[in-house]
Design a protein that fits this description.
This protein is an alpha+beta fold and about 280 residues long. The chain has 2 domains: about 90 residues, Phosphorylase Kinase, domain 1 (2-Layer Sandwich), CATH 3.30.200; about 180 residues, Aminoglycoside phosphotransferase (APH), C-terminal lobe (Aminoglycoside 3'-phosphotransferase, Chain: A, domain 2, Alpha-Beta Complex), CATH 3.90.1200. The chain is built from 9 helices and 11 strands. Strands 1-2-3-5-4 form a 5-stranded antiparallel beta sheet, with helices on both faces. Strands 6-7 form a two-stranded antiparallel ribbon. A two-stranded antiparallel sheet has the order 8-11. α6 crosses α8. The longest helix has 19 residues. The chain starts with a helix and ends with a helix. The mean pLDDT is about 95. It holds the Pfam family Fructosamin_kin. GO terms for molecular function: ATP binding; protein kinase activity. Belongs to the fructosamine kinase family. This is Protein kinase domain-containing protein.
């Protein structure tokens, strides 16, 4: 729980009186709290500033980039700051409600609109995927970006932990020919079922991004990795913003990045999953 000095600092920052501070679920990286005032509510995320340098500054920039697409609701950033050894990010609170009857249609169309925002592959700064660094040096094509900025750093990190991978050069040559020649899309970057909520209108709102401009199929692949998304979402998306031919055959290729992230965070059976994906495309 936030101590009295931290509470006083937040009241000064927000220029209001906090009537209640309540813990929320926040995963392994951050402590998350609901901040209640008489007028409105906020969400605050708190973590170790030294362990995760600039994480919240980078998340705030990613959220702002997503907001500019004007597709999904994205929580407004209220304040990024530090207190003692902690960093914090204060966000607009979105009160969760039941899904709208046309939720899947709204989600699919919103994702298609967001993905139509384009810029060079990469992002203005490196950021995070979970608690791991995510590299965003700009590249001119999808294959170079995915191999050099997504797969290579994760393979290197896994190798340093003792995980072995064979014939990666051959794998890279194979997938270079498989990746479609599409421009980069603005993607959420970590779009699993825990990173969207349902707002007061019953529409989807996105949270906790790993924002970048990247192959748009990456978001669709992550959505299918752990489930939680209706098939209609993908059908609506494909009608609104048609995908390249054989996109479904590349799902596991894009999922490899997220599997490698899990290898580096959790190890275990994720390594075997990574090896099985490599065999598919080698």
């Amino acid at each position: 729980m936030l101590n009295a000095d931290f509470k006083t600092h937040l009241e000064s920052t927000l220029n209001t009186t906090l009537t209640e501070i309540r813990p929320l679920s926040g995963g392994d990286i951050n402590n998350v709290y609901l901040l209640k005032t008489e007028e409105k509510h906020f969400v605050i995320k708190v973590n170790d500033a030294k362990r995760y340098p600039n994480m919240f500054d980078l998340e705030a920039k990613g959220l702002q980039e997503l907001r500019q697409a004007e597709s999904f609701q994205i929580p407004k950033v209220i304040q990024v700051g530090n207190f003692g050894t902690d960093s914090f990010l204060i966000l607009e609170y979105i009160d969760a409600k039941p899904k709208h009857p046309k939720f899947a249609e709204i989600f699919g169309n919103s994702l298609a609109k967001m993905h139509q925002a384009t810029a060079p592959f990469g992002f203005a700064e490196d950021n995070y995927i979970g608690s791991l660094p995510q590299y965003n040096t700009q590249k001119t094509d999808a294959a170079s970006f995915y191999i050099e900025q997504r797969l290579l750093p994760q393979f290197e990190m896994a190798s340093e932990q003792g995980y072995a991978f064979k014939n990666l050069d051959g794998f890279y040559n194979t997938i270079t020919d498989l990746i479609p020649l599409e421009p980069a899309s603005l993607i959420h970057g970590d779009l699993w079922g825990g990173n969207y909520i349902i707002n007061e209108q019953g529409f989807p709102a996105l949270i906790d991004p790993a924002t970048c401009y990247a192959p748009r199929e990456m978001d669709l692949a992550m959505m299918q990795l752990f489930g939680g998304f209706e098939a209609e979402i993908f059908n609506v998306y494909n009608e609104a913003f048609p995908l390249a031919e054989d996109w479904q055959s590349r799902i596991k290729l894009w999922q490899l990045y997220y599997i490698l992230v899990h290898v580096n965070l959790f190890g275990g059976h994720y390594y075997n999953t990574a090896i099985s994906i490599l065999k598919i495309y080698s």
